[in-house]
Amino acid sequence: MMQPPSSRLHPQPPRSRRLRTWLILLVTAVAVPLVLFSGFLLVRNVTAQVRETERLVRDRARLLAEDIDREVARLVAAAEVLATSESLAVGDFATFHRSAAAVRDRLGTNVVLRDLANQQIVNSRVPWGTPLPANSGLVADQRAIATRKPQVSGLIMGGVTRAPLLIVVVPVIRDGDVRLLLSLTITQERLQTIVAPERLPGGWRAGVVDEDGTVIARSHQAERFVGQSLPADMWAGMRDAPEGIHRAINLEGMSTFQAYSRSATAGWVVATSVPESLLAAPARETLLLFVGGGLVLFLIGIAAAIGLGRRLMRPVAQLAEAAEALAAGRLPPADAGGVLEIDAVVKAIRNAAGLIQQREADLAESEARHRAMVQTAADAMVVVDDAGIIQSFNPAAEGIFGYQAEEAIGRTVRILMPEPCHSAGDVDVVACLSTAEWRGHGTGRDLMGRRKDGTTFPIELAIAEWTSGKRRYFSGIIRDITERKSAEDALRASKAEADRANVAKSKFLAAASHDLRQPVQAMMLFQSALAERLDGHPASRLLKPLGEAMGGLRMLLDSLLDVSRLDAGLIVPTPVDMPVGLLLERLGAEYQPQAAAKGLRLRVVPSGATIRSDPALLERILRNLIENALRYTERGGVLIGCRRQGGNLHIDVIDTGIGIQPDKHEEIFEEFFQVGNPERDRNKGLGLGLAVVRRLARLLGHRIELRSLPGGGSMFRVEVPVVALSSSGSGKPNNVHPVNGHPVNGHPSLILVIDDEPLVRKGLQAMLESWGYRVLTAGSIQDAVLLVESGKWPDAILADYRLRSGETGLNAIKAVCERLDVPVPATVITGDTAPERLVEVRAGGHALLHKPVAATDLRNAVVEMLSVVE
What we know:
Number of strands: 28
Radius of gyration: 64 Å
Shape: elongated
Distance between the termini: 107 Å
Mean pLDDT: 78
Structural class: alpha+beta
């Protein structure tokens, strides 16, 4: 019958029992495994005893067979000695009779010498000369004659003694033929001695059976069974096997374990047996002892369990009284029950009762303190159950949402939530509370709340989930962040405006740089051309200050270019493992003359550390820092050193200069900001060095740290990662091998110059011609193509990026190469430092020079292009 669903869902508790019953069950549970295990050991022991008895029976059969073999072998040896005696060989039968009589007396046997017709010649039992009868032939005689070896007969009756005998027949061989037969008797009494009962354990049986299955000796009731044949089924099991063991019914009708072994000399079977009753008796005794003793011990255990149960009833009752006192909130009595463990439990209950009373007082105090904290908290605190019903609403929540606590408690939390949760069902509200968006994983999340009047406002919400019993609750801490959001919006607007201003500044600098570079480029070209033509002229001394003035202007434009290149992302660092010591030593040696010229000490502390950085970019950072230190230090000196900190290396540049005010530590990394140079002295820099340092450090992932006080000098620190072992590479950039600056193929090369500014074209033409090159000039793409179509093929092209009518130098280079149908090495010269222009030129795959271009830079660019042609 099926169990009702209610009973399956709510199973009945186990039935209670008295303590004495449990103790009896305990004794039974302990005794049953012991009984089973003891029974297993008993069976195992009986089995081992049976196996041991079988082994003993088999060994006894083998020993008796060996005794038979020794007895037969003794007679055979004596017969073989007589058969080879001298008296028998010469036919002296009287002397032979005396020898036979001696053997008879020594061995207790009878010696008979017969001819092949079975006529007795000598018989040791009668005196010599007594007439002797003829014997009937034996089966053993025929086997001895046929095999010419000693043979043993079966059991026969003696002709004179009429007693059972066994005969050993030995052939006497003369001249290769059997002439006589020599017989020695084995009496049945001798065999009985071998299997006598005193030679066997008590109750055992032994017997000897000849080759025909006839009993020739037996330890018990020999007079009854000697001469009888074994039952056919018993003899069939032993006739052919050399030895064995089996269960069998012996001649006395007893069930036995029987072992047999065959005599190797006589061929007889020797059998021993043990009645099964002898084997079962020890097992029965052990079993009776085990069952009786086990039952007595079990009853003693049950009685002890009953007595112990009665003894335990009082302390258990005291334990129940202590539990009832604990439930009632009073201290249990301290009476001892007589059981240490139960007394310890009662004591623990007393201690627990005291602790509970103390904790109840502490809990009441904590609840009062918590209630005061919630009521006076500046943030709103709301508790909601798992059904979305508000359970707690503090005064701060009243002020934020506009509800009184009496209005909010008991209502759904949806009244505080905007859409879509405001219109959702109660189940959906719990889902909203459980989502990551509302919970915030323990941190505040910026969301929207809803006031009583229906308006929404930004809030910061953090929700914690907790349980009480089987119910879930959600505690929410809510903060009105309307003012913070307004401040953040204003900050974002300010940042966007600053970003727009920064972009506009960059565009302005790029455009201004381009417009300034055009005339400066022409001035530098003409100055270089004049320097070569006015060499030795009185006016040549004016060219040097002119060159220095244009060099300063070029330095300003190059610094602007560096900032533009970094903003454009054209510089890609290639970090390698490099020894920092070599770089610092080289910079120290390079700036030592400059420091000495100002009367300053420049010291470099050696370092064996290996770091990972871009060698060229790191060197640029350190150069700018060292130059700034030397530039703003009038007394003292500059120290360059390293210090390892964890997995990083700090490279410090420390000076004793004018120092920097703390509120200016961030501003000095802005473009064109300088400390202590209100007159904008160009010898003190342009205010772009530290801006480049900060951009390069960000690009490399290195941290820049500044420590400085006015009048106390400055310390600039570059933090770089250090490696444990130096890399196999040196970390140095590849050396640039000098190129051959001779004209291509031994004749002046033809250079095509494309620029929309006539003044710049003339300046480039004058400089290139002064170097021995032929020059073609074009002001537009059309002019350049016409020159090529006229048959003048240039070896290299110099093109300005920005041409008239929206054309670019990249378009001009492409048009010339397409017209020639072969690529021509080209270099683009531009004064535009805007990041977009720089990226576009670099993507064209051409070399790039920025105006104003120094004469050496221009010559190197031309030689590099012509080396490609070669």
